[in-house]
Description:
The protein is an alpha/beta fold and 328 residues long. It has helices at 15-20, 27-36, 78-81, 90-99, 119-127, 141-153, 208-229, 251-258, 261-266, 293-297; strands at residues 9-13, 40-41, 53-56, 64-67, 85-87, 109-112, 134-138, 159-163, 179-184, 237-242, 268-270, 300-302, 312-319.
Amino acid sequence: KSSTEVSARYVRWNPNVDLHRSGDWSIEALFSHLKTKGFERITEPVYPVTKGKFFMDPHLPDCLLVFPPSANWWVGDKWYEAGAVILQDKASCFPAKVLMKGWTQEEGECIDATAAPGNKTSYISALMSSQSRLLAFERSAPRFTTLEKMLAKGQCRNVIPRRADFTDSDPLDPEFAKVTRILLDPSCSGSGIVNRLDYLLEDEVDEPDAQSSRLEKLASFQLQMILHAFRFPSARRVVYSTCSIHAEEDERVVLAAVSSGIAEEREWRLADRREVLPTWERRGRPEEMGGDEQMAESVIRCLPGEDKTNGFFVACFVRNEETDGLQL
Ligand code: SAM
């Protein structure tokens, strides 16, 4: 099977629309709607998904629907037009899921540091039940316009979009005092993307000879973003993700971040495997993390072709609560 072949199409049900729009946009109503479209729900996952069938994804059973590769029922469909379903690759749902594990509304506020086009922002907003503030940074003007449209369509009413560079924000500004969780899904080479349906790539991937210097630049920028996030005084969970399969942008960036002075000073460390989709089998590459098996266990990889997703990487940094409020 070629690695560019797609064996499933993923559709995320967006509960924010049911919360804020008149009418019944519940998941049960979606199932009934799909019946009228000729789709039967089955309980056991089968790949490639059989024509006319769908099932709930075993890793995201409350919101992610899995369809056959040929499915396109959403084209012109009222559920899609209403933002009640969003085309989002399975792996691209993972960072928000890991970021929001154990979230309660009382905890505080969140930041999505690199938000456009807004798929992950919209999912985080849904996991916050569209309550408490979620600040969404995006530095590119045209992509910011796309983000605003997506947030409006998806009824993400707790999101405050901001057209700004995340690294220009002052972590000590009182407006960020309650921010406890930050998502970083920065620009990357996009080398893991095989299914482009739900992606808005920033630019095309370079020729191989230009690639290594480009990866170096990307890695340095990605590390700067993580180190900036580490400076937010109330932050206790930072999730880093890429749609790259290159260790230069994945394990090696994470290793540099945990080995940094700021990580040591503020006691940031990698979260235990239990915090990072423990049932997902494919973990990081120890050889890219100084041979540290435990560290590699705590991050996840997705491989196109093998995992029925785009290529993806997710790491979660956490910090001890007793260092809260430490001003740097
Ligand atoms: N999280 C998005 C989603 O799931 O829909 C995809 C994010 S995309 C990989 C990276 C985005 O970060 C791009 O839109 C890019 O313009 C933006 N970006 C890159 N550097 C940034 C920075 N320093 N501050 C804010 N946004 C930035």
